[in-house]
Amino acid sequence: MATVIFLMGPTASGKTDLAIELCRQLPCEIISVDSALIYRQMNIGTAKPTADVLADTPHALLDIRNPDERYSVAEFCNDANRQIDEILARGHIPLLVGGTIMYFHALQFGLSELPATNDKIRQQIEEEMQLKGVAALHARLSTVDATAATRIHPNDRQRIQRALEVFENTGSNLTTWQQKPKSTRDDLDIHAWGLFPENRAWLHQNIEQRFDWMLNHGAVEELQALRKHWSLSADMSSMRCIGYRQIWSYLEGDITYADMREQGIAATRQLAKRQLTWLRSYPKVGLIDPAVQPITQLAEQISCNLPASNC
Fold this sequence. Notes:
alpha/beta, 2 domains, six-stranded parallel sheet, 14 helices
């Protein structure tokens, strides 16, 4: 079986630095697993690796969608599997790195085959959401798929829309589709690791420092340029990314700059909390603490637990 490394963790926990160190120690190639880094021209607000870093250590699956486009979990699985096969064919180790743990889970444990999108039905649901509001559509979802409605946050427009679209398109609800057999790959030996800082103050400080770095390096101006170049709305997946969502409200005059900063940091901390919750329950993942061990030691620990290790 072919060796594949998963490196997961909350935002601002040092995943990129550790991945680069692993590439120094092992013949790895990086595949990004991040639902925000897929967007072109969204560099500062997503803390995308710099051009110099990418020139030295390329990352696959960056800049593969425009900010006004969608990207599904199924599309990620297809793209990631293709990249894995190409890296393995070169005799290297695929190193999948990111914080979108739902993507990791779908890739490793399978994703139910869902019906293709129906543009007409999607447009109808979008118009209904604009007219009635997201709360009304979440209530309607509760009547056709109570399980999905419980699982999906009442403000998650995209997932509510998709669940209703599946039902309207097929007559079967999303939960029924997801209970069908899933296709998984049995040819990969996946070694999953999660950065799990026990010291929350350390992580919160990193989050605050990074958010301030993004603001100081032009995150507001970046979104202004995006709004001029693309026909964007606050409901789009790209604009719901943390940071962009709060800056959008600031540019609309709904909140002050100080409130935008405060809300952005708070939302990032909440994201990190959800990511850590995912990690706690992720099957067969090795948890390592970046707050107490230097990156070189963490990389050595991962390397020494691979098959045919020389440690």
